[in-house]
Amino acid sequence: MSLASLTTGILVTGVGAPPGLGTLRSLRLADADLNLVAADINPLAGGMFEPGTPSVVLPSASDPEAYRAAVREICTDRKLDIIIPGSEAEIAALAPVAREWTKAGLRVPVAEPDVVAFGIDKGLLLERVKHVGLPHPQTLQPSCVDDLADWSGGFPCVVKPRTSRGARGVGYPGNADALTSMWRETAAAHGPCVVQQLIPGGAETVYTIGSLWNRGDLIVSTLHRKLQTNPPTGGVAIAGETVDDPELMAAGLAVLEASGPWHGLAAVEVKRPTPDAPAYLLEINPRMWGFGYLMTLAGLNIPALLVRMLAGREHLTGHIPSTFPPYTPTRMVRSWQDLEIPPSTETSR
């Protein structure tokens, strides 16, 4: 069956960032007849102007009730029956109602709130992997400045917010005085922070294990690595390539299995400084990963498989290649695309 016959329409959110925009483009490539609606909190987000795709502006998910009300209204008005959220904040807002909405016919492929929490709170995730004995950087979770005296992981180290996105708020103090100063500033701006051992290696030593789950059952997993990031010290990937490494794949899936059961999309970032070193956990992203479109180019369209999975596992038959890995060697670089957009209706100043 065609993809369009399995859904009345799909709301893809967060289209101003690579996960949402890549999802939108992957679905359009999979079936041009799909009823897709792009959404973002920013009316000038690039994905809001994808050719042939209507768009809507959503309120911030920082107000979960208002966000959920807006999403329900949009899906009802436009006859949409699937939501693919593109950001952690949106997933956190939708997780408490996902099962209820799905039973009512509006399918929301996100995990239960207690599982989603592992993809939002780095401190919580690190406690879980430490408990089950998986490789992770030495970590301190100070509750006050005095706790920093317990840091024994050497310098430079890493200071990062427990709930940050990308490289926001991440710093690399080189001594104890710098650690104290940076921890104060970061905690004031971003909330509770963790201090971690700095794992050596550049962007090319950071790997992402992407995965699609159906109520705890793994449908398919992928593996790629970053080749370059912005900023270079770590952040949004601007170049990457697919990877075939069963040991790295198993390391990432072990983290997801320890923190699950997952439903929908989830990705693990690990860092392996040398081929013979362990793969140290960095974080989980409980959504489509930023380089998901790389897999579409490599022959494995994850968003299309997600839609088929939501329609029933039988609709996946014949759509997942029997080879491992189920994708071809592919490299991708992100580049700017200049788009002309409609003139504003507001008076120019």
TrEMBL record:
Keyword annotations: ATP-binding, Nucleotide-binding
Domain of life: Bacteria
Gene3D superfamilies noted in UniProt: 3.40.50.20, ATP-grasp fold, A domain, ATP-grasp fold, B domain
Coiled-coil residue windows: none
Record flagged with keyword ATP-binding: yes
Protein name: ATP-grasp domain-containing protein
Species, as recorded: Maricaulis maris (strain MCS10)
Organismal lineage: Bacteria, Pseudomonadati, Pseudomonadota, Alphaproteobacteria, Maricaulales
Ranges for domain ATP-grasp: 126-311
GO molecular function: ATP binding; metal ion binding
